[in-house]
Amino acid sequence: MENLREPLNGNEEYLYENVHDIVIVGGGVGGLATALALHRLGVKSLVLEKASNLRTSGAAFVMWANAWKALDALGVADSLRPNYRQLDGIRGSSNCTGMKKAVQLIKKTKGGLTTMMESRCIERIKLIETLAKELPKGTIRFSSKVVLINKKNPSSLTSLKLEDGQSITTKILIGCDGVYSVVGSFMGIPPAKSSGRIAIRGMVTYAESHQLEKFHSQVWDRGLRAGFIPCTDKQVYWFLTRRSQLQDANISGDAEKIRHATLDMIHDFPKPFAELVKASPAESISYADMKVRLVWPWMKLLPGKANGSVTLVGDALHPMTPDLGQGACSTLEDAIVLRRCLGETMKSINIVQWGEEEEKKIEWCFNKYLQERRWRVFTLVNAALIIGIVNEGSSKLIRFARDKILFPLFSVSYLRHFADFDCGNLKAKYS
Ligand SMILES: Cc1cc2nc3c(=O)[nH]c(=O)nc-3n(C[C@H](O)[C@H](O)[C@H](O)COP(=O)(O)OP(=O)(O)OC[C@H]3O[C@@H](n4cnc5c(N)ncnc54)[C@H](O)[C@@H]3O)c2cc1C
């Protein structure tokens, strides 16, 4: 929505600029889900995405029950579900001790099969395309990298400078711009740090059915974990995580070098690990330094300066290691909760005018949102970090704890704690 409006708060420079009610920086899962959550209740927003089109990198995600509940709330889950297979369970084995464990996500009952926990592996691009398709035309502006953010005083509008020199002004700013968030750094929050671990991912699409069972399969080794998950009958996603090493700098930008290094690391892994890595097209193979920002219970989620009508969603707010497969899932939860918290106040806000009173109301909503997310995010960020360290344990003690104590105790109830969260619905219509 672009308006030419009267000067606001006496700031003459806004007169001839575009003034938006809500600008979202970043057109990934978080940005598009937030825009859709707002749209579903009649609120327009503008999404600024630095890429020239919807980003295809990232191969696939495991989407757990909590994500499907959020996608249900957004009204897109049923268009995705039929295309991706419900996983029957999780299988893990240790190359160090031979320990094996399987956990069923589906169980046989008198009435047939019952799903105990929804879990499907879906292509990242298909998820963001589905979200984007539901947005009104013109909501996403591509090739719009935000390089500078400025806010003169607490109740003034927020100005964004784009890389191409354009300026955009907004009343409300939502940063969904991932781990290197420019909105986060404007808010003064510390940048995400390297967790000291890396992830390699890839995806293969076969011409015929791959015949693999519908299991999330993982193998643990000394300082290393690798897994694969069928997305559809023909598509399989695989990953490997381990501690980062000095020589990683030599392979990180070259898919063929990443492939060779991966094959080297999994040479004694069972079938079909090596086959999947060999069959994956180079463009599907990627390398990522896993980032994290620790969250402690006594901390505010945003430990930077208070910023009124500016907030964060997704990786920008809570970068976490992917060991629980919850980064994107919890990002979808953020979008629903943020919209719900905003919804109650937006009814009473005069969005045409903008001043201290309006800003205070939005700030109240954003604080409520952060308050609601605090414990959930604290649990996920820290649990993922600990699980990652244990999974890739290279010391004898950690491997013993993993293979003899934690691994045997692993169950659906344990998974439910992280992955069966219900973030609720979008609630009342704003008009
Ligand atoms: C190896 C690995 C495996 C993972 N596996 C899973 C999994 O199985 N399940 C799961 O739920 N999660 C998983 N995740 C986490 C998941 O990828 C992220 O949590 C999720 O993508 C976060 O979405 P986001 O929209 O916050 O950020 P992003 O997906 O990073 O999107 C940010 C967007 O902002 C844009 N942008 C950035 N800066 C600017 C700017 N200055 N101006 C304009 N646009 C900008 C970017 O181009 C991008 O499109 C995994 C992550 C990794 C690294």
Helix and strand composition category: alpha/beta
- SS summary, helix count: 12
H/E element sequence: EHEEHHEEEEEHEEEEHEEEEHHHEEHHHH
> How many structurally independent domains?
1
CATH architecture: 3-Layer(bba) Sandwich
Descriptive overview:
This protein has 431 residues and is α/β, with parallel strands linked by helices. It has a single domain (12-419), classed as FAD/NAD(P)-binding domain (3-Layer(bba) Sandwich), CATH 3.50.50. 33% of the residues lie in helices and 25% in strands. The chain has helices at residues 29-40, 65-74, 77-80, 124-133, 182-186, 248-251, 255-265, 273-279, 327-346, 356-391, 396-409, 412-419; strands at 19-25, 46-48, 60-64, 89-94, 100-104, 106-109, 112-115, 119-123, 140-141, 146-151, 158-162, 167-175, 193-205, 215-221, 224-230, 235-243, 286-292, 310-312. The strands form 4 sheets. Strands 1, 2, 9, 10, 11, 12 and 18 form a 7-stranded mixed beta sheet that branches. A 7-stranded mixed beta sheet has the order 5-4-14-15-16-13-17, with helices on both faces. A two-stranded antiparallel sheet has the order 3-8. The longest helix is centred in the C-terminal third of the chain and has 36 residues, at 356-391. It is globular. The two termini are 15 Å apart. 46% of the residues are buried. The model is unreliable at 1-17 (pLDDT under 50). Flavin-adenine dinucleotide (FAD) binds next to helix 1, strand 3, strand 13, strand 17 and helix 9. Residues 25-31, 48-51, 55, 58, 61-62, 145-146, 176-178, 182, 199, 201, 288, 290, 314-316, 322, 325-329, 331 line the site of flavin-adenine dinucleotide. InterPro entries: FAD-bd (IPR002938), FAD/NAD-bd_sf (IPR036188), MOase (IPR044560). Residues 21-346 form the FAD-binding domain. Keywords: Monooxygenase, Oxidoreductase. GO terms for molecular function: FAD binding; monooxygenase activity.
